[in-house]
Amino acid sequence: MSQTSEHHYQRLIEVFERCFKEDHNTVLVAGNDEPYYQPATEEGEPNQVVFAHGFFASALHETAHWCIAGEARRKQFDYGYWYEPDGRNEAQQQSFEQVERKPQALEWLFSLCCGFPFQVSVDNLNGVEVDRQLFTAKVAEQLNHLLEEKTLPPRAAKFAKALCHDFNCSWPSGQVVNS
One Pfam family from the UniProt entry (predicted)? Predict the structure, then answer.
């Protein structure tokens, strides 16, 4: 998908910076390759949420991971998480989908808040056959739960509200997605 001026990643960088640079010393950065999180290694240096290839969706996804990560995780490279690359077997894919359900639900919320289309990422092109429709339904269920129970992580709520404001979108209400 090509980026329009409305959905250029620079806008996300600016919104993220307004929300988190001062209070969390963290910036959103367009990377050249794989996405990752880099905690500051020197005094005065910011923590960096690096997204892939300047992709708008990647920026939303990596921001979602950062909004979930607790303080201890935010002190570790890539939050200290494991990552099983493309080519996962069925058990590995199920673990991936379990771990990814919440960040992808937040990514979906962020997408709604800035009027950008969302698509789940199964991230396993060379592995077992994936039921994308089932995974989408599980991510939708997670998003609806977060909104209905008002259990959004505080940083996620702050970023989502800032996106709504900056992109002139309404806050999602009720059952925003149906599986």
Answer: EpmC
